[in-house]
Amino acid sequence: MPIETLKWVGGTTGRLELIDQRRLPGRLEKLSCQTPVQLFEAIRTLAVRGAPAIGVSAAYGVCLAVGVLADTAPAAEAMETVGKTCDYLASSRPTAVNLSWALQRMHGTAKTLLSKDPSLTIGALKRVLLDEADAMCAQDRRACEAIGQNGAHLIPDGGAVLTHCNAGALATAGIGTALAPMYVAYRQGRRFCVYADETRPLLQGARLTAWELTQAGIETVLICDSMAATLMQQGRIGAVITGADRIAANGDSANKVGTLGLSILARHYGIPFYIAAPLSTFDLSIADGRGIPIEERSGDEICSLNGLLAAPETVGVYNPAFDITPAGHITAIITERGLIYSPGRENIASAMGGV
Predict the structure, then answer these.
(1) CA–CA gap between residue 309 and residue 311 (Å, rounded)
(2) Fewest beta carbons within 10 Å, which of 26, 125, 128, 279?
(3) 245 is known as an active-site residue
(4) pLDDT tens digit string along 127-154?
(5) Which uninterrupted H or E stretch holds 56?
(6) pTM for this entry
(7) Which domains does the chain have, with CATH numbers?
(8) Catalytic residue among 20, 140, 197, 245
(9) How is the chain split among helix, strand and coil, in percent rounded to 5?
């Protein structure tokens, strides 16, 4: 994929460049983040989105925070900045566990380094933190490719798959999670159709997934969210593949609201339902889906469309960004280490061994 969702430009005092996903599909524009405050707003307003992309971006956000500090000062003076930046960025969106995972890794790297060498300078700390963020970016790219390779055989040659929201290159540093098997299968010569839910209220499926897939030359059909049941009833869907923002220890998975309904429909019509996610999306500290925090967003996202009022101003609005798909509805979770069939505590813990 030629899409480069995020890119660090410059050395230890550089900046983070992001594709501004609020502008797609009409305009392909870059957003330059030079401070953690700018990155916070980019995450909060969905200029950058998708659990893996948010995590990698946040790692670079720590580099933005320390980049302005004097190189010759003791690294111990930077630890307060690192800690505050991690706490600040972690509050931008609560559901995607990759965000807190990446920030904990950056904070832990700084603490470990300083404990080994108390005389370390901020200049040396900057270089190590940038190396760590770069490593996370490269790790995500490798994970995406491996997910694609591990899931490509699930894409029916001559058939069709359904996906929801956007879990492609725009949601990661690589070729995506849910879309990765499709990209690899297409590379291998399989030809198939992807039905993309529009994904109300912010239309990530229409604006982002449809744009990505058509850019890649993959046959794509856009549908309203409410049309999925009809397609399944007609026998036109061979598999459903979505991403995830957090997966509990028992396999319950949080993803864009509407995913739960698709899993129920797929179960009813006997269609395999797959989640594609890197191991960094698993949160073994949460026993099941009841413990996953669900972000609630402004009602304005539902009540207006492109600045036009779409509902009465006085109507009440409930706008959860995610829902929870029970593990029992999931045929398998596609990870960089392989497929976890019938996901549950034991086989997830086994797959996570060594992570």
Answers:
(1) 6
(2) 26
(3) yes
(4) 999 999 999 999 999 999 999 999 999 9
(5) helix 51-67
(6) 0.93
(7) 6-146 (1.20.120.420), 150-351 (3.40.50.10470)
(8) 245
(9) 45, 20, 35
